[in-house]
Task: structure prediction
Amino acid sequence: MLKCRDIEQMAGQLQDDELNWRQRLSMRMHLIMCHHCRRFLKQFAAIKKLAEHSVREPASDDEVKSVMDKINGSPWEPDRE
Result:
């Protein structure tokens, strides 16, 4: 029988449909008995969905340079408009 730690490690594989039938069955057996893992998988799926929807095109070189300059520059100062 799987442990909660195993469920955490296999969550991504479950979401990506990469588990074989035996692994899926073992996971379902555990989830029948463990409400903590059911909640974890529900939250994991929600976070993954949000992350997929928030992905946009990669930052341009200028955007990356601007952020790096701010990180490497002097102490943070708020933008003044």
